[in-house]
Design a protein that fits this description.
two-stranded antiparallel sheet
Amino acid sequence: MAEIEDLRGMYESFCSFGSSRNLASPHSSMESIAGPQMDGAKFAKFCRDNRIIDNKKVHSTDVDIIFNKVKPKGARKLDWNTFQDALQLVAEKKHGKKGEGAYAALVTEIVRKGKGPVVSGTVPQQDAILDRMTDTSLYTGTHKLRFDEEGRGRGAEGRDQPSKTDDLSKITNREETSVRGLPVSADPFAQTQQPRTSTGKRGHQNVVTASSERLGEFAQIKFAGGT
């Protein structure tokens, strides 16, 4: 009886593994009504972390097949009862016999040797290439200036420099240009010429064309004939 209680504790720990919700809270989700539930990925992790999968008698494919065979139609997870049914089939496959004896033997192995969910992460690999990339004494150019003799970063002191384009006058030239489009100071031909004077734009009222003169004469003749 104690082994079943320990198994139930392990089952709940795997159900809540990787979940941000508090499954013990009565207002967490619908799982608070039916109890914690286990999906296929967590059931496979349960079998893998407890060394049920040995790739001899029990493979990961067998675990997936048993999970889909036991779960209710249309469901995606196992509750405590269906979890025990799935574990019964896994025990029969692992020990090669049917009945409660295989299930009890598997539960005893899990409780005695098994633990909770195993958390694994990526471990950085130390090799010669990584050592050369992180050795600040081998840096050159501007990268070398960002670190001191002991390899510590200089921060803003080694990175920030006064900007050469912080003022618009440093990137634009407002000098008068010659007829060739060059600045007057840089165009030797423009320096030898007389300065040009601007005559300004002619107003539209000062422009008299031949057609306007003819229209004026025609208007005078018509006015004289009418009188």
